[in-house]
Amino acid sequence: TYKGFMTCGPRDFDGTGGVVALTRWIEKMESVIDNSGCLANQRVKYAMSSFIGKDLTWWNTQVQARGQDAANAMAWDDFKALLTTEFCPRNKIEKLEGEFWNHSMVGADHARYTDRFHELAKFVPHLVTHEEKRVT
């Protein structure tokens, strides 16, 4: 139910903050969706209720172009791809790709290096070799 979904504390999203903010919002939203038992056909409808600001305006134009039923029936992966296209400019993703390629450990701060590596790997997954494909 929507009440159950809201009880799980979905985070608002305002369309700012670029790749990092969107990725964190999606992660939190997927956790809320999972914990609330949200059905596949409710995901987009419930998730978009957390939009505020410019992303709400953007979503309203999507609804106007597609129709309410079609917009709400969109597959979750298609919805995420649409959000990424709109709110993660290519130049910002390229900047993160460069940071990933040049990521190095400074001093002995292994924890900070590892944390940032994992964070960057989420933002540019196409650059990461999956563990099962690594040569041992």
TrEMBL record:
Record keywords: Nucleotidyltransferase, RNA-directed DNA polymerase, Transferase
Protein name in UniProt: Reverse transcriptase domain-containing protein
Gene Ontology MF terms in the entry: RNA-directed DNA polymerase activity
Domain Retrotransposon gag: 45-133
Pfam family, one: Retrotrans_gag
